[in-house]
């Protein structure tokens, strides 16, 4: 059996939200980005931008957050501390101090719907 080594192990993510407008405002403010509305599928989505065709991205969709699911780590614009402040300002929760690992720094947070996210920076 050949060993698979993809460019990105994660290829897409989905975050369920109860209020699309509130969730878009939260993620746009925290990440200093613009999510694009997409209505070509069975559900409306707000798509995170990614650089290039091979960049890993994902979307928000109307759904019921489980609160106990996986944690998606999102690239936070520098400085990481400012992104963490925006989490609180926009109704999210910061669950940890900044954690330092060899690849960079991150903090565990929750969005206003209770979804687990990590904000990652260098």
Keywords, please?
122 residues; alpha+beta; 2,3-Dihydroxybiphenyl 1,2-Dioxygenase, domain 1; five-stranded mixed beta sheet; four-stranded mixed beta sheet; 9 strands; globular
Helix share bin: 10-25%
- Given helix and strand content, the structural type is alpha+beta
Q: Give the CA-based shape.
A: globular
What is the H/E order? EHEEEEHEEEE
Number of domains: 1
Radius of gyration equals: 15 Å
Distance between the termini: 36 Å
User: What is the CATH homology-level superfamily?
Assistant: 2,3-Dihydroxybiphenyl 1,2-Dioxygenase, domain 1
CATH topology: 2,3-Dihydroxybiphenyl 1,2-Dioxygenase, domain 1
Low-confidence stretches: none
The CATH class: Alpha Beta
Characterize the biggest β-sheet.
Answer: 5 strands, mixed
Strand content: 25-35%
Strand segment tally: 9
Report the CATH architecture: Roll
Q: How confident overall, as mean pLDDT?
A: 88
Tell me the number of helical segments per DSSP (H or I, 4 or more residues long): 2
Task: Write up this protein.
The chain has 122 residues and is of the alpha+beta class. The protein has a single domain, classed as 2,3-Dihydroxybiphenyl 1,2-Dioxygenase, domain 1. 18% of the residues lie in helices and 33% in strands. The chain has two helices and nine strands; from the N terminus they run E-H-E-E-E-E-H-E-E-E-E. The protein has helices at 20-31, 80-89; strands at residues 12-17, 36-38, 45-47, 57-62, 72-75, 93-94, 99-101, 104-110, 116-121. The strands form two sheets. Strands 5, 6, 7, 8 and 9 form a five-stranded mixed β-sheet that branches. It has a four-stranded mixed β-sheet with strand order 1-4-3-2. The longest helix has 12 residues, at 20-31. The mean pLDDT is 88.
């Amino acid at each position: 059996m050949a060993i698979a080594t993809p460019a990105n192990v994660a290829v897409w993510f989905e975050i369920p939200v109860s209020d699309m407008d509130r969730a878009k405002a939260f993620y746009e403010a925290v990440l200093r980005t613009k999510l694009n509305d997409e209505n070509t599928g069975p559900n409306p989505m707000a798509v995170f931008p990614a650089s290039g065709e091979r960049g890993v991205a994902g979307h928000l969709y109307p759904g019921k957050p489980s609160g106990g699911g996986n944690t998606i780590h999102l690239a936070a614009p520098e400085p990481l501390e400012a992104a963490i402040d925006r989490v609180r300002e926009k109704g999210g929760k910061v669950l940890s101090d900044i954690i330092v690992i060899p690849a960079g720094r991150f903090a565990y947070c929750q969005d206003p719907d209770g979804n687990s996210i990590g904000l990652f920076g260098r």
